[in-house]
Design a protein that fits this description.
single chain; alpha+beta; Immunoglobulin-like; Jelly Rolls; seven-stranded antiparallel sheet; four-stranded mixed sheet
Length: 518
């Protein structure tokens, strides 16, 4: 990784912004005293500080892409909620452009500064505010790399790196806000794009393709074969970690703010996700599925924080194995019922980053330890913990709504290896002492009950049904279908029944209209 450095002091003293940005207006209310766009997203990076008298001259000078503001009152209590330091101690945070005004007070730990750390404020700003990651991809031509040049301040161009074709050849490096780069066709010297670094950036030269072998597939047959195989795979895992195999939760504010600002800043840079040879788990041949890769250091900071949440839920120490996303689904998207790799995906998280233009909820479907279907509705910032190698999961219902989109992050963990090495094959091990009992046999029944009326997007009123279960351990997300799978063929029936042609599909034996109890 090549690190292109430019000091915070040089940026703070030498670069200029307009007069409005030079004003040191005190921020007393986060939601009203900072600049937001029409969508309520922060329009510039902001350094918020308190008690930094010795650094007044430094903070009075603008940094490239930043404004610096002192905070007082309610804003200070939000930005520095647990501070026990004296008022004379210098404290500061870097708030990233793109964050929603409702979370502009929340920053990750590495974006926080206290003078008690003995680190000069200028160094903190340099390393934690101005330094960002840039990830570049080549979708221009397969037969030769894209050449990337750093455009130095004196007008000189310096060769920086070359990028081979495809997602697996993504190149990430550290840079600084204000740096500029150029991508060039390595054969013709055609300039493919100019990059001015304004935030952590993921960008592709050229246009990606979803897959070029759609004509070689018999999708119905492949889906049937896949679902039967997934049913077999989920039965290979015997160990459990939780009563149902899943649980809904909520992201801490600082992680949510970091994730959403990254998405907002890069949402225009999404590329089609590569599905060549990856199966039929997403209906990529019917609707586009886009992808925004996460830079390595940013990914690590999220993974570490999320691991703490997963360990608390699973009740065991875990190690990170994978983080995947951001994946953007579009209208019509479906996700086949499946399980994940047992070697590496013991306990996992689904994180909803953003969604919009939906005309009806798009639940994540999770089968519990008795293969009963639960449908969990998520809002941005919600998380779903799940035992991803054991519990079948998917989103069989098509994402509904013109221009609908749904953006998720997936992160995966497995038990930390033990000295005897047995945790390396965790999925065949018996449950540890203290593991919550799996909810397999339940008391009483689950029944469909009317829950009132609702107005659909069409304006038509319809009766809404909810599920009431005598056994409260089943939670509040049991599917109104009362679907309980017993074979791979049942999963095939569910895929067909929930599809866009479901009106012509036969009602399965377990489906709505056939019984009202589970």
């Amino acid at each position: 990784m090549l690190l292109l450095r430019i000091s915070a002091v040089a940026l703070l003293l030498a670069l200029s912004v307009n007069a409005q940005q030079n004003e040191s207006a005190v921020v007393r209310d986060i939601e009203t005293d900072l600049p937001y766009d029409a969508n309520q997203k922060l329009t510039t990076h902001v350094i918020l500080y308190s008690g930094c008298k010795n650094d007044a001259a430094l903070l009075a000078k603008p940094s490239y892409g930043f404004i610096a503001r002192p905070v007082e009152g309610k804003a200070a209590s939000l930005v520095f909620p647990e501070s026990t330091s004296s008022k004379s101690e210098c404290r500061a945070v870097c708030v990233e452009r793109g964050v929603d005004k409702s979370h502009a007070y929340a920053v990750m730990p590495h974006k926080r500064y206290q003078s008690a750390s003995k680190l000069p404020l200028s160094t903190f700003i340099d390393e934690n505010c101005l330094k960002v990651e840039v990830c570049l991809m080549n979708y221009h031509k397969k037969d030769h790399p894209v050449q990337v040049y750093w455009l130095k301040g004196n007008g000189e161009k310096k060769h920086h790196m070359e990028i081979k074709y495809g997602e697996r050849n993504t190149r990430c490096f550290s840079s600084f806000i204000g740096h500029e780069f150029e991508g060039v066709d390595g054969e013709t010297n055609e300039v493919l794009g100019h990059i001015k670094v304004e935030y952590t950036t993921v960008l592709a030269f050229g246009t990606a393709t979803q897959s070029d072998d759609a004509g070689k597939h018999n999708f119905d047959k492949e889906i049937e074969r896949t679902l039967r195989n997934e049913w077999t795979r989920h039965n290979r895992v015997t160990r459990t970690f939780s009563p149902l195999g899943f649980k809904k939760g909520r992201l801490p504010d600082d992680i949510y703010a970091s994730m959403t600002s990254f998405f907002v800043n890069n949402r225009g840079n999404a590329v089609l996700e590569e599905w060549q040879g990856k199966g039929v788990f997403v209906n990529w041949w019917e609707t586009n599925c886009s992808f925004i890769q996460i830079p390595w250091a940013l990914k690590k900071s999220w993974q570490i924080r999320l691991r703490e949440l997963v360990e608390a839920w699973a009740g065991i120490p875990v190690e990170q194995t994978d983080m995947y996303g951001l994946r953007r689904y579009e209208a019509g998207a479906r996700l086949l019922t499946h399980v994940d790799r047992e070697a590496t995906h013991a306990v996992s998280l689904i994180v909803n980053i953003a969604q919009g233009n939906l005309t009806e909820p798009w639940p994540v479907e999770v089968h519990d330890h008795a293969d009963r279907l639960h449908e969990v509705i998520m809002k941005p910032g919600d998380i779903v913990y799940y035992e991803s190698a054991k519990c079948l999961h998917g989103r069989n219902r098509p994402l509904a709504g013109e221009d609908a989109y749904y953006v998720n992050l997936f992160t995966h963990y497995r038990p930390k290896p033990t000295k005897d090495g047995k945790e390396g094959i965790w999925y065949t091990q018996p449950n540890h002492a203290g593991t919550p009992e799996a909810v397999v046999d339940v008391k009483g029944k689950c029944r469909l009950e009317p829950a009132g009326t609702t107005e659909a997007a069409s304006g038509q009123l319809g009766v809404v049904e909810t599920v009431h279960c005598d056994d409260e351990r089943l939670g509040d997300a049991i599917s109104p279908s009362l679907f309980q799978a017993a074979s791979g063929d049942d999963l095939i029936d569910w895929w067909r029944f929930t599809g866009p042609d479901s009106k012509t599909a036969a009602i399965p034996k377990w489906g709505p209209g056939s019984k009202d109890e589970l």
